[in-house]
């Protein structure tokens, strides 16, 4: 018996979910790499706080990468693992060297906007496919990300000259 049949999911509808989960995986991988760069390169005002925050965020992103890849596997597909392939499809692009905390925070807010929009689309697709597990996973992501956005907006008023 096929896995999706046991789960009570329609293969055709689930494939739409898998496509968007794969795009989310690509975005999360680039997001993770950018966060590592911010952690290493950002200097100046708020360094101690933001240095730790970037580490917290990239650790969280690494967990999300694994959760999304495992969900793709659970849905009967294979997640991409090549960074070159991620770069081809990711909406989030590689950041260069970013040493200004405000610039990094502004980029993070853009990244979260992208991730949140993708996750909401996945919720819609997963709801249509009766894939409650993926809906729950995306909702869990959104709870944490919306709080992070709230906090990042609070610090985004700092300038690079500070």
Written account of the structure:
The chain is mainly alpha-helical and 162 residues long. The protein is built from six helices and no strands. The relative contact order is 0.18. The model has no long low-confidence stretch (mean pLDDT 93).
Order of helices and strands: HHHHHH
Low-confidence stretches: none
End-to-end separation? 62 Å
Number of β-strand runs: 0
Apparent shape: elongated
Structural category is mainly alpha
What's the gyration radius in Å? 17 Å
Short descriptors:
162 residues, mainly alpha, 76% helix, elongated
Question: How would you concisely characterize the structure shown here?
Answer:
The chain is mainly alpha-helical. It has helices spanning 3-7, 11-41, 47-74, 83-89, 101-128, 132-155. The relative contact order is 0.18.
How would you summarize the topology of this molecule?
Blueprint: H1 3-7, H2 11-41, H3 47-74, H4 83-89, H5 101-128, H6 132-155
Helix pairs in contact: 2-3, 2-4, 2-5, 5-6
């Amino acid at each position: 018996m096929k896995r999706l049949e046991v789960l009570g999911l329609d293969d055709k509808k689930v494939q739409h979910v898998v496509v968007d989960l794969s795009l989310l995986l690509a975005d999360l991988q680039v997001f993770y790499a950018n966060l590592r760069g911010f952690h290493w390169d950002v200097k100046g005002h708020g360094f101690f706080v933001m240095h730790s925050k970037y580490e917290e965020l990239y650790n969280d992103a690494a967990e999300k990468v694994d959760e999304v890849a495992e969900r793709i596997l659970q849905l009967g597909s294979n997640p991409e693992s090549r960074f070159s392939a991620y770069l081809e499809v990711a909406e989030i692009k590689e950041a260069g060297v970013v040493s200004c905390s405000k610039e990094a925070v502004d980029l993070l807010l853009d990244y979260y906007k992208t991730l949140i929009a993708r996750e909401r689309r996945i919720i819609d697709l997963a709801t249509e496919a009766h894939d409650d597990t993926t809906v729950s996973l995306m909702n869990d992501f959104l709870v944490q990300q919306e709080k992070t956005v709230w906090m990042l907006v609070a610090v985004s008023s700092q300038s690079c000259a500070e």
